[in-house]
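I had to read the description of the data format several times before I understood it. In essence, backbone conformation is discretised, so a fold becomes a row of integers matching the chain in length. I therefore recommend that a typical entry be quoted early in the introduction. For illustration, here is how one protein appears when written out as sequence plus structure tokens.

***
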Amino acid sequence: MAIVLAVPARALEPPTATAWPDTLAGRLAALALVQTLNSELLSHPSATLTLDRWCADHRLAPAGTKIVADRVKDVDKPADTAVREALQVGPREKVAYRRVRLRCGERVLSEADNWYVPALLTAEMNAVLDTTDTPFGRVVQPLSTRRRTLSAEVLWQPLPRGWEMGAALPPASDGPLVPPPHVLQHRAVLALPDGRPLSALVETYTGGVLGFPWFEGR
């Protein structure tokens, strides 16, 4: 005998995509996702490849979209003493500079300052970095670099410190929850397998990492 289960009509309806609500639930979700991204970045050697996965998992662009590095041209930040110390190079050794915005489709997810030692790269890699917008992490992937994080700072706290212990919560509003321009910042060094530093990075992650809709009814 066939058994027919009665399923409420609402359960058959697909979730409805809306703007993120400025409520406790919306802020909790934002907090969890920022911390998740932070953890993913800390536990993987390439920020570019991590953002590739984040872009795909959260459907921030059409399927198959890869992170693109839009170079910010006509900007130069000579390597200061701190950068040269991190790269373990002397005052006369050449250090190149690249500033990029890492973009998933039309959405900028990260702004990065990158100082690197051209002498540790192949001529082909240097040419690609000089003449294209290919992300640094994708260019140097064949070198099997290792990432060492110097600092990781959460720039946005959707809930106040001590919220879990009864601190006053922001009042809910009728408007959407809008992340600030920047939500995370990492400082890191990429090194070759033998330990030689290759690149010093300052990466600032934007509110665009939460640029996917809120799904009601989930």
